[in-house]
Design a protein that fits this description.
Elements (H helix, E strand, L loop, with lengths): L9 H13 L4 H9 L5 H8 L15 H14 L2 E6 L3 H16 L3 E6 L11 H9 L4 E5 L6 H9 L3 E5 L13 E3 L15 H16 L9 H10 L6 H15 L5 H10 L7 H18 L3 H7 L4 H37 L7 E6 L6 H12 L3 E7 L2 E7 L6 H7 L6 E4 L4 E6 L3 H14 L13 E2 L6 H7 L14 E14 L3 E8 L2 E7 L1 H7 L9 E10 L8 E10 L2
Helix pairs in contact: 1-2, 4-8, 5-8, 5-9, 8-9, 9-10, 9-12, 11-14, 12-14, 13-14, 14-15, 15-19, 16-17
């Protein structure tokens, strides 16, 4: 259940004081819990230590029983199963999880993944042809399939039973699938509606295990659930919080699969992991091969049988991610320059930029960066041979899917949800789409800039590892469970310098305490004109974190806003 943020009040203060004494907790952590609706020891304790046994019951999920029965029958009878996933982290982890589970349960499984550059998103005609060539009795789609009516109908005509596991928005037309698991189905009785596809795949795997009476410990796959859930920006409350919390704990403890252990080692993560580490370190590495070419190296890593097999595969992903960073940084600046030429410095709603020869695999990253900088929905279109492939991102709160769907008459294909969408169109339609998209974003109610809400002011004595470590109790933080933001007033700027012409690093002096502060990409760009010169006094709002590079007692601030001290 999502709980509303309560205003500061004497009631909240009293509840926070009780929580701080009872649990016990740092006063700021207790106040955050009380403000977020976890005001008594029982609900706060359940939030801080979520238990797998307390997750919502999956029994009412539409078609879960049908899917489990069919896959169990395939395992018993030696029928071949093709598991096909989309090319992003949710699709890849779903495919890897279900492949590993079904193989352990005795099924013959061939895993396949989509490619941006050969067939594109979802169960394309190209992807279906390859899957059918494998001769499956059952085809399972992961993180796609909800809108693939024609291809599913063709598979059914070919005698293949299709099981769709997806979480994207559901069209009105019935889906010609043997089983269709999607919590957004109007007839789905699942009480938790926000699982990523990897969470749904985990639930299906557990049901198949139950049908076969196998003692397989499903907790061994929670590392994959955590990766896919966080990377797909699924809300981190309810069942997602429980699964992700336990999955990250397994990765942290070294209990992950060989591929995920090698991935963490290649990322050179230090100290205890957070959801942010997944978002900014592990997920980009997992996505990198698919952005540059085939996503198969990522699937191979996640299916690695042992550490010796996994280590070189993880190193290859790290190298691919370095190359991806180089390409995306260059394209961000090219696309940003085009956006300023077309729309000026402050576009009102809906930005579309396009270029011949732009790298299609970078579209999502570039669109996300521009959406952050410009504060509106952005579509980045890579054009080749008269066809444009677009990636769409927007600030949180934008009805992104509705805006894209409103332009469907100009598009060849489209799909996604309100966090991210993709599309294709003829290059000749780009100008018409540009005008239609701007209008659609306005009509869909583009998100107003969200005010930065702070959870408390910190003084010199608060800026230590004790508090930063205490805030980790609220992990995993992200969508639906935001990081705690604090304000530091009257800090003196001891240093201001640019990092890679993209970020800013500040040195802050608060009394006698010194700490680094970082402004990332779009935040840095918006702040450039307002950062006072060195030695000036500033008020800073940001997230207090342990500083992994300066020692176990060091902290840093990830800045959201910075203004001259008032």
């Amino acid at each position: 259940m999502v709980r509303a943020m309560l205003p500061l009040s004497a009631e909240v203060d009293d509840a926070a004081a009780r929580l701080a004494r009872t649990l016990p907790l740092h006063p700021l952590v207790a106040r955050v819990l009380a403000r977020r609706g976890y005001a008594d020891a029982r609900t706060a304790g359940s939030f801080l230590s979520p238990m797998l046994a307390e997750m919502s019951r999956p029994d009412a999920m539409a078609d879960r029983d049908a899917a489990a029965d069919r896959l169990a029958r395939a395992a018993r009878n030696g029928e071949r199963v093709v598991v096909f996933g989309d090319y992003d982290v949710d699709g890849l982890t779903s495919t890897a999880l279900l492949t590993r589970v079904l193989r352990t349960l005795g099924a013959e499984v061939i895993p396949r993944v989509a490619s941006r550059f050969d067939g594109g998103y979802g169960l394309s005609a190209t992807a279906l042809a390859r899957a059918l060539d494998d001769g499956p009795a059952v085809l399972v789609t992961c993180d796609c399939g909800t809108s693939d009516h024609e291809r599913l109908a063709e598979a059914r005509r070919r005698g293949v039973d299709c099981v769709v596991i997806d979480h994207h928005k559901v069209p009105d037309e019935p889906l010609p699938a043997f089983a269709f698991l999607n919590p957004h189905r109007p007839d789905c009785g699942s009480t938790f509606k926000h699982m990523a596809s990897v969470g749904l795949a985990f639930s299906v795997g557990a049901a198949v295990r139950q049908r076969l009476g196998h003692k397989l410990d499903m907790r061994a796959f929670l590392d994959l659930v955590a990766l896919g859930t966080v990377a797909d920006v699924a809300p981190l409350h309810g069942d997602n919080r429980t699964l992700t919390r336990h999955g990250i704990a397994r990765i942290d403890a070294g209990d992950a699969s060989p591929g995920v252990r090698a991935l963490k080692a290649a990322a050179k993560l230090r100290y205890a992991m957070t959801a942010r580490d997944v978002s900014f370190s592990l997920a980009p590495m997992l996505n990198a091969p698919g952005r540059l070419g085939s996503p198969q190296p990522t699937l191979d890593l996640l299916l690695s049988a042992d550490d010796a097999e996994a280590a070189p595969r993880a190193a290859a992903l790290a190298a691919a991610n370095t190359r991806r960073k180089e390409l995306s940084a260059a394209l961000v600046e090219t696309a940003f320059a085009q956006a300023r030429t077309l729309y000026g410095d402050a576009p009102s709603a809906g930005v579309v930029v396009a270029g011949e020869g732009w790298h299609a695999g970078m579209g999502g990253i570039v669109a996300g960066r521009l959406a952050e900088r410009l504060g509106t929905a952005v579509c980045v279109i890579a054009v080749e041979n008269g066809v444009g492939v677009g990636s769409v991102r927007a600030p949180r709160g934008t009805k992104l899917y509705d805006a894209v769907r409103a332009c469907s008459g100009l598009l060849e294909t489209f799909g996604g949800h309100d966090a991210a969408a993709g599309l294709s169109l003829r290059a000749s339609q780009v100008d018409a789409f540009r005008a239609a998209f701007a209008e659609a974003v306005r009509n869909a109610g583009g998100a107003a800039p969200e005010p930065v809400v702070t959870d408390g002011d910190l003084s010199e004595g608060d800026l230590d590892a004790t508090l930063a470590d205490g805030l980790r109790a609220l992990e995993p933080t992200g969508e639906g469970n935001p990081e705690v933001l604090v304000r530091v007033r009257g800090a003196r700027l001891a240093e201001v310098r640019s990092i890679q012409d993209q970020h800013l690093r500040l040195g802050l002096a608060v009394g006698r305490r010194r700490l680094p502060a970082f402004l990332r990409d779009g935040v840095a760009l918006r702040a450039l004109g307002s950062v006072p010169p060195e030695r000036g006094l500033v008020d800073v709002v940001g997230a207090l974190r342990l500083d992994p590079w300066s020692g176990p007692a060091a902290v840093q601030v990830d800045v959201r806003t910075i203004t001259a001290a008032g």
